[in-house]
């Protein structure tokens, strides 16, 4: 039976995308601006032992190296998948399936690109 809670991994990935979306330079910023809005108190409690959680505490601690590393990996991953998706649609893809992506804001973020894509 599936757990009613999201996985800790999915929350960590969303937190990394959210932290990456805070990068001031637009060319470096993770484009997933929805990720942070998906992280409520219950989700942040589930990752409170991970170094990335410091960035979401009220005192706004600086993230540790492990958090920055995860953030950069998710930034690269997000931009890579977005690029491949855009290319697939330009090449005629008509259907998109996102698996295991409860915190993925891609469909919302790329709404105009996905017009006419099932």
Account of the 3D structure:
This protein is mainly alpha-helical. The protein has helices at 8-20, 41-46, 65-90, 106-109. Helix 1 crosses helix 3.
Low-confidence stretches: none
Mean pLDDT: 89
Number of strands: 0
Helix content: 40-55%
Beta-strand level of the residues, as a percent range? under 5%
SSE order = HHHH
**Terminal Cα span:** 29 Å
Number of helices: 4
Sheet having the most strands: none
Task: Give me the Rg, rounded.
Answer: 15 Å
Query: What overall form do the CA principal axes indicate?
Result: globular
Return the structural class: mainly alpha
Quick structural overview:
The chain has 118 residues and is mainly alpha-helical.
Strand and helix map with partners:
Layout: H1 8-20, H2 41-46, H3 65-90, H4 106-109
Helix pairs in contact: 1-3
